Amino acid sequence: MEEAIEWVLSGGCIVYPTSTLPALGCIPDSNALDRLYEIKGRNSGAPVSLGVVSLSQASEIVHAPDDVNEILDVFPEGSLTIILRAKNEMDSRLGGNKVAVRVVSNRTAKELLSKTGPLTATSANISGQEPLLDCVEAAESLRRTEESIVGVDGVCEGGPPSTLIAWHTVCESPESLSIEVIREGKGKFGGSFVMVEEQDLKQWRDAGHVARRTLEGIKGEIVEGKEWSEVIDSAERFIRRHGGKAAFPVTISVNEMAAHYTSNTELTPPEGFEGEMIFQKGDLVKLDVGVHIKGALGDNALTVEVGNGGEHTEQIRAAREARDAAIEKMHPGTPWHVVGEAAQQASIDAGFEPIRNLSGHKMERWNLHSGVSIPMFACGPNNPGYKGEVEAGGVYAIEPFNTTGKKWDD
């Protein structure tokens, strides 16, 4: 191994074992990456990942929220590669400002990376060709030039590659929770998180309880003269005090804004909004909070009228009735269009129109929007965007939106 360490630190390429396939490693240096891409025949527009010995080592180059550790604890060691925001712009072949890192599990790889620091972890094969499992043989197969490639002794298990996920940030906050599965591999998302065990179910319930208590505890702060940002900060503190973490930044939307406005770091008003971000009497305010406990999610919202003058009472009630009507249809096997029809009918009966381009959604652990949208209007049985049905064990957010139908003055 000493030969490999000396070679790779001098800018050369080596092949080392992982829990899946042999990895072609070089230091994250421009010249070393030139050699690696030439050896693999890889398109320079396709970034490669970095292998690390621990999340602590990764945190030297990327923002690594505490929640990442919780994800790694759930999955088999070495089965995930996670795209995280870089602390400083890196070579575009490493992803630029978003770098994929993999905490290795192979004992030899751990020993190697503890001495070299992060190394690339792309598969040790010519792009498009099947990889070999023996690291020394893989190194021999890549010697297309006179330059040496050192192979570290080791034979890999093979099988599927690591699962590649992206940890998206919201408003440039490295603490926000939004995960996208880019490549399904050894670490299985989705079905592995169906609520089947009591402890798992308890975490989902606890997240929902914290979200509900947050809304109840904070709604009294939505008063005339108060800044929106004060309520946002207060809600996020409430979540932390009660044992949860914010699954997304708390959002406040006022009057014609339907949903999802989040203040940016400059606290500037949303596009089209005139005036200061201070609550006025008669404002129709939507407060949306997300909570997670070890990735189990609660996504709750409420609507209030500042001053309780009664101007928006019927509209608020209509939204609740649409929610309840949809929930009544949430039985395994119910088609989504039936759920949407129930929500729409409740809105129309109350004198309001459903907003059609906003919907509910399915949730999975660590994945707030897991690919299933739930219509809150009568979409019909043949709408391609809402195929499918309610599944037993699924976790869903029911989110009806309604409108008076009045349009902006041009």
Description:
This protein is α+β, with helices and mostly antiparallel strands and 410 residues long. The chain folds into 2 domains: 2-188, DHBP synthase; 193-403, Creatine Amidinohydrolase (Alpha-Beta Complex), CATH 3.90.230.10. It is built from 10 helices and 18 strands. The strands form 5 sheets. A 6-stranded mixed sheet has the order 6-3-5-4-9-10. A 4-stranded mixed sheet has the order 7-2-1-8, with helices on both faces. A 3-stranded antiparallel sheet has the order 11-12-13, covered by helices on one side. α7 (198-218) runs antiparallel to α8 and α9 runs antiparallel to α10. The longest helix is centred in the middle third of the chain and has 21 residues, at 198-218. The protein is elongated, with a radius of gyration of 25 Å. The model is unreliable at 170-176 and 191-196 (pLDDT under 50).
Itemize the secondary structure elements and their pairings.
Layout: H1 2-9, E1 13-16, E2 23-25, H2 30-40, E3 50-52, H3 55-58, H4 66-74, E4 80-85, E5 98-103, H5 107-116, E6 119-120, E7 122-123, H6 135-141, E8 149-151, E9 163-167, E10 179-183, H7 198-218, H8 228-241, E11 245-254, E12 284-293, E13 296-305, H9 313-328, H10 336-349, E14 353-354, E15 360-363, E16 373-374, E17 395-397, E18 402-403
Parallel strand pairs: 1-8, 3-5, 4-9
Antiparallel strand pairs: 1-2, 2-7, 3-6, 4-5, 9-10, 11-12, 12-13, 14-18, 15-16, 15-17
Helix pairs in contact: 7-8, 9-10
